[in-house]
Amino acid sequence: MNYLRMEGEQLPAFKKINSPLDLKKLTLAEMNELAGEIRQQLIESVSRSGGHLAANLGVVELSIALHYVYDTPHDKIIWDVGHQSYVHKILTGRGDRMSTLRQYGGISGFPKSEESPYDAFNTGHSSTSISAALGMALARDVQDQHYSVIAVTGDGALTGGMTYEALNHAGNAGLDLTVILNDNEMSISKNVGAMSSYLNRLRTDPSYARTKDEIEGVLSRIPGIGPNIARAAGRFKDTVKYLMVPGIWFEELGFTYIGPVNGHNLEELITVLGNVRKMKGPVLVHVITQKGRGYQPALNDPDLFHGIGPFDINTGKTDRRLLPTYTEIFGQFMVDKGREDDRVAAITAAMASGTGLKNFALKFPQRFFDVGICEQHAVTMAAGMAKAGLKPVVCIYSTFLQRAYDQILHDVALQNLPVIFAIDRAGLVGEDGPTHHGVFDLAYLRSIPNFTIMAPADENEFLDMLNTAFTINGPTALRYPRGIGAGVEIEPQRRILEIGKSQTLREGKDLGIVAIGRSVEMARDLTTILAEYGIEATLLNARFVKPLDADAITALARKSSRLVTIEDNCLQGGFGSAVVELLADYNINADVLRLGIPDEFIEQGKAEILFQYLNLDPESMVETIIDHWPDLIPNATWELRKIGEN
Ligand SMILES: Cc1ncc(C[n+]2csc(CCOP(=O)(O)OP(=O)(O)O)c2C)c(N)n1
Description:
The chain is built from 28 helices and 17 strands. By secondary structure, it is α/β, with parallel strands linked by helices. The protein folds into three domains: 12-209 and 245-300, Rossmann fold, CATH 3.40.50; 326-479, Rossmann fold (3-Layer(aba) Sandwich); 508-645, Rossmann fold (3-Layer(aba) Sandwich), CATH 3.40.50.920. A seven-stranded mixed β-sheet has the order 7-6-8-9-11-10-15, with helices on both faces. Strand 4 (256-262), helix 14 and strand 5 (282-288) form a beta-alpha-beta unit. Helix 16 packs parallel to helix 22 (459-469). Bound molecules: thiamine diphosphate.
């Protein structure tokens, strides 16, 4: 394959596709040609913008077949997680915008109804598609409308509890609904769990092949095929390599199971889906695909190419970073801690590499638990472990931990169990956008009794906080951002921090600034700029969101009566709110300016761009502060500077 084409140049078959209607004019040979071109386009686009490559390379033929057979957007396709929807985007008129993928103002890396009528339902978090599809199918029937609803879900998504809740309901409801199970044996890493083993048996064990009678039974339910043709099932099976195996588990739930189907054979896919479209009741089509198909580096390492930053198209290599990320620092800490204490256990919900636990898993396989995409189960399981004497560390991204709110509250906090929550990707995560920004955790955690909540300002403080977390006899949350930290040199000596104690980083008479986590670094730059205007600020690194350092914060508010809070969390209920509540409780009348994420969902884009868009970069924050308290600076100077800039 020629990986090096000119940016923006379109390939012959690719050029012809502006909508699924164009697809329907192609011959099978042309569609196969198109599949090759789409793979090339995907590799090129993702090499520039980063994104979810491997899963998309695996669903090229499936996406083509779906849009060929079904009448979209009248028929609704719901992509589970949605990270595999790039091919669907290309086929539905967005091929020419692939160069803007995941960028600020560009097309989203996930299905987005606001972007296209072909994106039937917004997704980003796993295992929601069958529930959403069922909801649409129910609404369709209640309103006596007529269209097909298809949920495309992965075998990884099948480890998530919502899937079973939806299958349970759908099988019983018995209405027309199609679930495509896109089985590539991979979640992000190798898939886990008993269901994964079951699917593996369906794929490989010939004893699961259906008897002729059973095949006839299923085929006779297809309108237009009927009993006579069904009797020729053996021939039918041979001609289109159409295998029907019991999938007894799905059948028992009320689904007609069809498969396994070769997800890279367009002819087979189109034939099978064409028949499925006519079938009544809930149907599950088991499609076998290969993650990373068509690009050797992705085939070699589908885990890395699940979600990857920009890479060299010829070698598949990404740029090496000089500084370690928070995730990497956490991973090393866990290995050290695991060695020191054999009660330390690590739990991930299908994100072993994303959360930095790969080495811990290798070194302590008995104490490493990848439970699949089931954050709720992960949290309650950790509660059980803590109750029974282990020291569990639950490592989940901020956005996915939202799933487990009740488990955190009811199973962990209510029993005051010492579970440590390592909350990675807190704050704005960048290109994955609104489904993935981790900007709500401070708000959703801080209302829960018994919790200690910390956020580090730099790498050393992060390690000290992790160290401190193991000394706390109750639930503890540590939230830290995606990527590298402040870049400080890591000191060998670890400390135990005093719980609820902030750190004063700078003293100044004009106003007080209290920042938390990643915002502390920005606040430092902000105070430097303020000083250039002759404004001297006191800067507190809060370290703890709960308990707050009431002494230091109230003293600061009393001293200056002008207080700024800075956080990369939602303002509603977040850190600044905690400070305001504290001052109200102490009856302190201070003017508090809260800076953070406003009450809206934040778009995708590089974090630096998003911070600017939100006026949360140091320069913009200076402007906001001076606009809020114009008397801090002789007006003329400020206005002159602004004029000078324009
Ligand atoms: C609730 C939740 N937890 C974790 C993730 C992160 N995640 C994104 S894709 C993925 C794996 C999905 O595997 P599968 O459904 O088999 O799809 P594939 O990538 O193999 O096509 C995971 C764990 C998520 N999106 N949502």
